Each structure stands twice: as structure tokens, then as C-alpha cells.
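In the current project phase, our protein records have gained a C-alpha cell line. A sample record follows, to show the layout:
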Amino acid sequence: MNPVAARSPGRELNWRSKGSLVDALVEKLDAKLREWKPETAAQVRQCLAEVIDLADRDVLDLTRSRAAEQEVLDLLDEPTSR
């Protein structure tokens, strides 16, 4: 299964090789950046620049994932059973 599609049900990108996957991602990003509000597009650009910088420094795996952070916050918000 397409790893991108697995994370985004119903939003499968068409690709058959590594090159076309990148092309599909770039095309989708370009379309979304034009679609979103300027503030949202600016935030996405900043986040992507940070991810690229972290990957260039080989420290990407050291950053806390947003999903893990949200999971912890959800656990903290759950009512305690006594």
C-alpha cells in the first residue's frame, strides 16, 4: 500500500516510482499553498523549512512528534477512574 495514502485515507497520491512520488507531493503542496490562507501557508513553509534543516543536521528523529505530543495531552485530559 502507498505509505502516503495509508496516512491520508481518501487522499491517495498517484505514483509509481520514487520520482513521481516526489512530483505528486510537490504538486499537492503547491496547490495547497495557493489554496490556504496566507498565514497558514506561511506557517507550513516555516515548518517545512525546519524539518528540512533538522533532516540536514541528521537530528530529525530527536524532535518530538506532534502525534506523540497529542497522545500524551489526551491521556492527561482523560478523567481518572477511582
About this structure: DSSP finds four helices and no strands in the chain. Residues 1-35 form one domain.
